[in-house]
C-alpha cells in the first residue's frame, strides 16, 4: 500500500490538461491530501494540433508528507499520440530510435498509462513522427507498464449524443471523461467532484451539465467495466482518505498557487502596516498573474498600474514610495535586468521598494515557461556601484505568501529595496495553504519620521540602527530633495567630497548587514532514517528557493540533514556556525553554482561542493540521491 | 505668498547667462501666484542641467535618473492625486531616453505640469546633439554634422493626443509665468516647452526670437480669445488660407484683414492647434541652407512665408485625467465590494479544516 501517488495528465495544448489537472489536485486536497503540482506547458500559445511541440502536461503528487510534484508518474493520462511519446521518452522524444528508458521516461516501469485510442489514427501518428502503426511497440513500452486503452473520443461523443452540441464543443469535453475515470481510479467521491465542477464553471453555466455528464460517465465506465487495473487506493482503506490524521497544524486550509500567494502576501502586509499597496508592473511570463490578481483587488484598495514598459513599472513604484506608499513591482529575469538602474536609484535614495523576480529559463528570452534559479547573482550584484539590496527567496508555493509579506516588512522598516526570488515552479504550482488571520501575522513598523524632526529634517538623518527616516510629500515641515547622486552624510544635499562618499558607501552597506539582527536563524531540517540506515551526520544538503521539497525528500532518503535558505542577503547570523559542523556541504541548485559561489566568497574556509541541474525542470530526487551516494569517499 | 518662499537654501549653480536662471525665477513666481503650500508640491526631474531645478525650490523634490522623471512623476501623482506635481526635463531627458514615458504620460493625460527645457543640445554631458538639434548640426558627437531629422516637440505632444501645450522663451519672464500658471490650472498633462539658451555649448540657438529687435517680427504670443496679431507695430495677423486641391495653411495678412483669426485654445479639434504649434520652425529643422549656419541667422527665411513661431498657451482642452480615472475606479469597485479587508477576503475562499 502506497502513501503517495503521482499522476500526470498529458495532451495537446488545446485538450484542457491544466484545467483537468487542477481540478483533480484540488479535489484531492479537499479530501485531506497534501498536494504539490507542476504545470508543464510549452511557450507557444497554440502549436499545431497533435504535434510534439504542442504537448502540455500537468503533474500532481498527492498523499502524506508531500514535498515535491514527484519524479516519475504512477498514473498517466495520454490524450493523444504525441503525448504518449513525450511521456514515454521524456527529453529524448526527438531522438529517432529512442524507446522507453527508465532514466528518461516520465513514468516508471510499473505505471498505469491510460491512452485515448481514438487519437492514435495514422494521421495522429504521422503528426507525432511515428514510423510504424503500433505506437506501443515502437516506443518499446515494457510489459510491466499497465496500458489501459480507452476510446475517449467515441465515448465522449456517445455521452453527449443527445446534447445538441456541435462536434468541436463535444471534443473539448474529452478531458472530463478522463478526469472521471481518474476519480474512479482514486476512489474519490463523485458528489464533491460535481460540486467542484459547478464551482469551476459557474461563469459559464451552459457548460456545467455536459461536462458533469461526461465526467460521471467516465467514472461509471471505470466502475462498470471493472477495468483490469489495480484501483489505486492511498493507504489501503477508502475511509482513511477522508479521515486522514494529518500532521499539519489545525486550521482552515485552501490550495493556492504561488503567484496568487505572493499577491496576497503583499495585500496582507499593506493592511498590517497601514499603508496603501501600489504595484507598477508590465506583463511577463511567468509573473503576469501577480499583476492580474492585484488589478482585480481594487476591493482591497490596491492600486495596480500596467505600465508602458518594465522600467516604467519600477519607476511608477518608486514614485509611489517617494510619496509614502508600500510600493512593489513584479517581473521575471529579463525585466529584472531592465529595472537594475532604477533599483539602484531606490538603493541610493533609500526608499522602501519590493521587487519580485519570478525566475524562468534564461539567459535572454531563454525558456519562458520553464523553471530555474539563475537570477541570484543578478539580484545580488546586478547594479552599478557598491549597491547592496536585500535578497530573500520563497521555498514553497504556500510560503510565497509569507515571504512576500516579509519582503514588505523588511523594506518598510529598513528603507531599502528588497528583491524576492520565486520561480516558475512555485508560481504555477499549487500547495496547501493554512489561511492566517491578519492579527496572527508579524508586526510591521514603517520607518516614518518622528514628530521631533519637524522643521529639522533632512533625508540623511539616521536612527541608532543606521536607517534613515521616511518623510513624504503632504507632511508639513519635512520638505527635502531626494537624489540618486551621492549625498552629504550630515546634510543630505549633493556631495562629491571623497571621505563623505566612502562614509556613505559603508553606511549603506552597514544598513543591509544590520538586517541580520531581525531575521530568523538558519534552521536545519533533519532527514529521517528511511531504510534503517545510519543517519548520515557528515553530509548537509544546502539549497535555496523552490528546491526545498525535493531536497527534503532527498535528505530523507539519504538520512542526512538539509540547510535550506530563505534569507540570502543578508545571510542568517548562524550560517557559518551551522555549516561548519559538517564534513561535506553540498549546494544543490538549478543553475551552474550561483549560491555556491556566494557562500564560498563569504566563507572561504568551508568546503563547498555543488550539485547542479539546469534543464528547465525541477530536480529529480533520485538523481540527487545517486550523486551523493556515488561521490562518497 | 512671495516667490522667495519657494526658494531653497541651495546656491543656484546654473552657468552665468544660462536660460535656466530665468525659468527658475519664473517657477518661483508662478508657484507663489498659484498658492499651493510647499509641502503639497513635488518637483520630479531626471538628469540634465534642467533636472537640477528641484534643488533650488523649497518643495519636496526628487532628482532621479536620466529619462525616468515622467514615469516616477506618474507614480507620485497617481498614488497621491492630492499633490501638485511638476516635472522638470530637457530635450535629451524627455525626448531621447525619456521618449517612451513622455508619450505615455501625455496619452494617459496624467495631471502633471511638465517643463520641457529645450536648448537643442546636451549641456550636462558637454555638447552632444539632441533630438531637437537641426540636421547638419556640428557637435562633439557629430563632428561632420548630424544626419538625422529632429523632432518638433509640439508635434510629438499632439501625436500623443496631448490636451495642453504651451511654449515660452527664457528671456520673456511674463509669458513664462503665464504659461506655468496655466499649466497648473489645466487638469491634465500640461507640456510647457521652454526655449532656453545654453550659453556654453549652444549659445544663440534661439537668438532669432530672443533678440529684442527680432522678437516682435519672428514670434507671436497667442492668448485665448484674442486676435492673432504680431509685429513691431502689431501690424500683422494670422489667417487661414484654403487652397485647392484641399491644402490649407496659415498665412500672414495685414492686421486689419477680416480673416485674422481669434485664438481658441479650448477647441477640442487639434487641427488648427497643430498648425499653430508647428508654425515658423522650418528654419530649425536643418542647417544646410546657405543663409544659416549652426546659429540660425536672424534674418527671415523665404521658406517660412514670414510666419512667426507661436508662444503662449496654444492648446488647453479638457479630458479625464489618468489619476482621476484610476482613483475613481478603485473607489467605485471598493464601494460595491462585500469584502474590504484581508480577513474578509480570505473568508471568500473555498476552504476546509484540517
Please characterize this protein's 3D structure:
The complex is a heterodimer of chains A (633) and B (354). Chain A has 633 residues and is an alpha/beta fold. Helix content of chain A is 35%, strand content 19%. Chain A has 22 helices and 21 strands. In chain A, the strands form four sheets. Chain A has a seven-stranded mixed sheet, with helices on both faces. In chain A, β20, α21 and β21 (608-612) form a beta-alpha-beta unit. The two termini of chain A are 36 Å apart. Residues 235-246 of chain A have low confidence and may be disordered. Chain B is of the alpha/beta class and 354 residues long. Chain B has helices at residues 19-34, 69-79, 91-95, 99-108, 153-159, 173-185, 207-210, 212-218, 271-278, 322-336, 342-347, and strands at 41-45, 60-63, 84-90, 113-118, 164-169, 190-195, 219-222, 229-230, 236-243, 247-254, 309-316, 352-353. In chain B, the strands form two sheets. Chain B has an eight-stranded mixed sheet, with helices on both faces. A three-stranded antiparallel sheet of chain B has the order 8-9-10. In chain B, a hairpin with a 3-residue loop joins β9 (236-243) and β10. The model of chain B is unreliable at 290-303 (pLDDT under 50). At the A-B interface, β7, α11, α13, α14 and β15 of A face β1, β2, α2, α4 and α10 of B.
Total count of helical runs of at least 4 residues of chain A: 22
Largest sheet of chain A: 7 strands, mixed
Structural class of chain A: alpha/beta
* Termini Cα gap of chain A: 36 Å
The description of the largest β-sheet of chain B is: 8 strands, mixed
**Strands side by side in the biggest sheet of chain B:** 2-1-3-4-6-5-11-7
Write down the oligomeric state: heterodimer
Count of alpha and pi helical runs of chain B: 11
Amino acid at each position: 500500500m502506497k502513501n503517495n501517488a503521482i499522476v500526470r495528465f498529458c495532451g495537446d495544448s488545446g485538450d484542457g490538461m491544466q484545467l483537468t489537472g487542477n481540478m483533480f489536485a484540488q479535489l484531492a486536497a479537499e479530501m485531506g491530501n497534501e498536494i504539490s503540482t507542476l504545470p508543464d506547458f510549452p511557450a507557444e500559445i497554440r502549436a499545431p494540433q497533435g504535434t510534439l511541440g504542442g504537448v502540455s502536461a500537468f503533474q500532481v503528487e498527492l498523499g502524506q508528507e508531500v514535498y515535491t510534484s514527484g519524479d516519475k508518474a504512477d498514473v498517466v493520462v495520454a490524450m493523444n499520440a504525441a503525448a504518449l511519446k513525450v511521456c514515454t521518452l521524456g527529453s529524448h522524444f526527438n531522438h529517432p530510435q529512442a524507446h522507453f528508458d527508465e532514466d528518461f521516461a516520465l513514468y516508471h516501469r510499473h505505471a498505469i498509462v491510460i491512452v485515448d485510442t481514438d487519437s492514435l489514427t495514422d494521421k495522429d501518428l504521422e503528426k507525432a513522427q511515428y514510423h510504424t502503426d503500433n505506437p506501443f511497440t515502437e516506443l518499446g513500452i515494457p510489459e510491466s507498464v499497465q496500458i489501459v486503452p480507452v476510446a475517449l473520443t467515441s465515448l465522449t461523443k456517445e455521452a453527449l449524443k443527445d446534447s445538441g452540441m456541435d462536434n468541436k464543443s463535444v471534443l473539448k469535453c474529452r478531458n472530463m471523461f478522463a478526469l472521471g475515470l481518474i476519480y474512479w481510479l482514486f476512489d474519490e467521491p463523485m458528489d464533491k467532484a460535481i460540486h467542484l465542477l459547478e464551482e469551476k464553471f459557474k461563469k459559464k453555466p451552459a457548460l456545467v451539465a455536459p461536462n458533469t455528464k461526461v465526467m460521471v460517465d467516465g467514472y461509471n465506465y471505470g466502475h462498470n467495466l471493472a477495468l483490469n487495473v489495480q484501483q489505486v487506493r492511498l493507504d489501503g482503506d477508502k475511509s482513511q482518505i477522508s479521515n486522514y490524521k494529518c500532521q499539519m497544524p489545525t486550521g482552515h486550509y485552501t490550495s493556492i498557487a504561488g503567484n496568487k500567494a505572493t499577491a496576497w502576501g503583499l495585500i496582507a502586509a499593506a493592511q498590517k502596516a497601514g499603508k496603501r499597496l501600489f504595484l507598477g508592473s508590465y506583463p511577463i511570463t511567468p509573473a503576469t498573474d501577480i499583476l492580474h490578481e492585484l488589478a482585480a483587488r481594487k476591493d482591497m484598495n490596491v492600486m495596480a498600474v500596467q505600465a508602458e514598459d518594465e522600467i516604467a513599472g519600477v519607476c511608477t513604484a518608486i514614485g509611489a514610495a517617494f510619496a509614502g506608499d508600500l510600493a512593489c513591482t513584479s517581473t521575471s529575469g529579463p525585466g529584472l535586468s531592465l529595472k537594475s538602474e532604477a533599483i539602484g536609484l531606490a538603493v541610493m535614495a533609500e526608499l522602501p521598494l519590493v521587487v519580485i523576480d519570478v525566475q524562468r529559463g534564461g539567459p535572454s528570452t531563454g525558456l519562458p515557461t520553464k523553471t530555474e534559479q539563475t537570477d541570484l547573482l543578478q539580484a545580488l550584484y546586478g547594479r552599478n556601484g557598491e549597491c547592496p539590496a536585500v535578497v530573500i527567496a520563497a521555498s514553497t508555493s504556500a510560503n510565497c505568501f509569507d515571504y512576500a509579506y516579509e519582503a514588505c516588512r523588511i523594506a518598510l522598516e529598513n528603507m531599502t529595496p528588497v528583491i524576492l526570488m520565486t520561480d516558475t515552479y512555485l508560481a504555477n504550482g499549487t500547495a496547501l495553504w493554512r489561511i492566517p488571520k491578519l492579527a496572527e501575522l508579524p508586526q510591521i513598523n514603517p520607518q516614518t519620521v518622528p514628530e521631533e524632526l519637524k522643521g529639522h529634517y533632512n533625508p540623511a538623518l539616521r536612527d541608532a540602527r543606521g536607517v534613515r527616516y521616511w518623510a513624504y510629500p503632504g507632511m508639513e515641515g519635512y520638505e527635502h530633495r531626494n537624489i540618486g547622486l551621492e549625498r552629504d552624510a550630515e546634510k543630505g544635499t549633493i556631495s562629491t567630497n571623497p571621505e563623505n562618499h566612502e562614509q556613505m558607501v559603508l553606511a549603506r552597506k552597514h544598513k543591509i548587514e544590520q538586517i541580520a539582527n531581525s531575521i530568523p536563524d538558519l534552521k536545519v531540517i533533519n532527514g529521517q532514517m528511511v531504510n534503517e540506515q545510519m543517519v548520515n551526520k557528515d553530509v548537509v544538503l544546502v539549497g535555496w528557493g523552490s528546491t526545498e521539497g525535493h531536497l527534503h525528500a532527498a535528505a530523507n532518503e539519504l538520512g542526512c540533514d538539509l540547510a535550506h535558505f530563505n534569507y540570502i542577503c543578508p545571510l542568517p547570523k548562524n550560517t557559518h556556525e551551522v555549516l561548519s559542523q559538517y564534513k561535506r556541504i553540498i549546494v544543490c541548485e538549478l543553475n551552474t553554482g550561483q549560491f555556491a559561489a556566494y557562500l564560498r566568497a563569504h566563507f572561504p574556509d568551508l568546503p563547498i561542493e555543488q550539485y547542479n541541474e539546469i534543464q528547465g525542470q525541477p530536480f529529480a530526487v533520485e538523481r540527487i540521491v545517486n550523486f551523493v551516494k556515488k561521490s562518497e569517499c | 505668498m512671495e516667490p522667495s518662499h519657494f526658494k531653497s537654501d541651495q546656491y543656484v549653480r546654473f552657468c552665468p547667462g544660462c536660460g535656466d536662471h530665468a525659468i527658475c525665477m519664473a517657477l518661483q513666481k508662478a508657484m507663489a501666484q498659484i498658492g499651493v503650500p510647499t509641502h503639497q508640491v513635488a518637483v520630479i526631474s531626471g538628469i540634465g542641467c534642467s533636472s537640477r531645478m528641484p534643488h533650488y525650490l523649497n518643495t519636496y523634490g526628487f532628482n532621479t535618473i536620466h529619462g525616468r522623471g515622467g514615469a516616477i512623476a506618474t507614480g507620485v501623482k497617481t498614488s497621491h492625486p492630492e499633490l501638485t506635481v511638476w516635472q522638470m526635463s530637457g530635450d535629451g531627458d524627455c525626448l531621447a531616453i525619456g521618449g517612451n514615458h513622455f508619450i505615455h504620460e501625455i496619452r494617459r493625460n496624467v495631471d502633471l505640469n511638465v517643463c520641457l527645457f529645450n536648448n537643442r543640445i546636451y549641456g550636462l554631458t558637454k555638447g552632444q546633439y539632441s533630438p531637437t538639434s537641426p540636421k547638419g548640426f556640428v557637435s562633439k558627437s557629430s563632428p561632420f554634422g548630424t544626419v538625422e531629422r529632429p523632432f518638433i516637440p509640439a508635434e510629438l505632444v499632439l501625436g500623443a493626443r496631448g490636451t495642453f501645450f504651451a511654449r515660452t522663451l527664457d528671456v520673456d519672464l511674463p509669458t513664462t509665468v503665464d504659461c506655468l500658471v496655466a499649466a497648473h490650472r489645466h487638469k491634465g498633462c500640461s507640456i510647457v516647452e521652454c526655449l532656453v539658451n545654453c550659453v556654453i555649448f549652444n549659445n544663440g540657438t534661439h537668438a532669432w526670437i530672443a533678440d529684442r529687435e527680432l522678437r516682435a517680427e519672428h514670434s507671436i504670443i497667442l492668448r485665448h480669445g484674442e486676435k492673432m496679431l504680431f509685429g513691431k507695430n502689431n501690424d500683422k495677423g494670422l489667417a487661414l488660407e484654403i487652397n485647392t486641391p484641399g491644402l490649407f495653411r496659415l498665412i500672414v495678412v495685414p492686421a486689419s484683414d477680416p480673416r485674422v483669426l481669434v485664438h481658441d485654445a479650448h477647441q477640442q479639434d487639434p487641427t488648427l492647434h497643430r498648425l499653430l504649434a508647428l508654425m515658423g520652425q522650418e528654419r530649425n529643422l536643418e542647417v544646410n541652407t546657405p543663409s544659416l549656419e549652426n546659429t540660425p541667422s536672424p534674418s527671415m527665411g523665404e521658406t517660412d512665408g514670414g510666419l512667426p513661431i507661436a508662444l503662449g498657451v496654444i492648446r488647453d482642452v479638457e479630458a479625464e485625467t489618468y489619476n482621476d480615472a484610476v482613483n475613481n475606479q478603485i473607489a467605485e469597485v471598493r464601494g460595491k465590494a462585500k469584502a474590504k479587508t484581508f480577513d474578509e477576503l480570505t473568508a471568500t475562499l473555498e476552504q476546509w479544516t484540517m
